[in-house]
Amino acid sequence: MLIVIENVLDAGEVRLFRERLSAAAWVDGAPTAGSRSVAVKQNLQLDRSDPVAVELGQMILRKLGAHPVFISASLAEKIWPPVFNRYENGGHYGTHVDSALMRLPEAGLTIRSDLSATLFLSEPDEYDGGELLIEEQYGAQAAKLNAGDMVLYPSSSLHQVTPVTRGQRVCAIMWMQSAIADAAARGMLFEMDQSIQALSVGRAKDDPDVDRLIHVYHNLLRRWAQV
Ligand code: NI
User: In angstroms, what is the span from residue 159 Cα to ligand 1's centroid?
Assistant: First the structure.
């Protein structure tokens, strides 16, 4: 399931990110791809240790930590620090699967990648191509979102970024380990939570029917969570 989370960054924040990133030290992104992926990856990235990447990455993590739809959809336990990338002049990333286990020794961080995320920082009319194509159970789906919006998709999927033939596509990408490893179970919990939120509108704070659903939600979460 692809989940679009709108307005992770507002227009002012996108502008700030773009200003900072336009002056940053971009380097070839191919060396950080896995041994098979390197042959199909052509883009620019910021080094993980780049102070701009560190500062903006922390801003994204703060925003996500306070975003109710993101929290409900991902049930993220651990998030890999955001990586900033830029595609231009035909840059692309051919079909690949993301690494299942990701280790960052200097941060003492190991995650099992359950969810991958792309936060778009360029407006879709600023570039041609650059679709994120995700192969799902029922066929490929494309994502090319407004600046500030993010798509969450299963890390287990095959996916690609199509060549950018005009302009620049700037994004932040990240990976997360969810408390719920199983995508189907996580998807059901998300649907249920969204319904609870919708049903709660206009009802008393102690509405017994809503309380019963919340009770079931938490007990399913308790049953399935691995933390
Ligand atoms: Ni990928």
Answer: 6
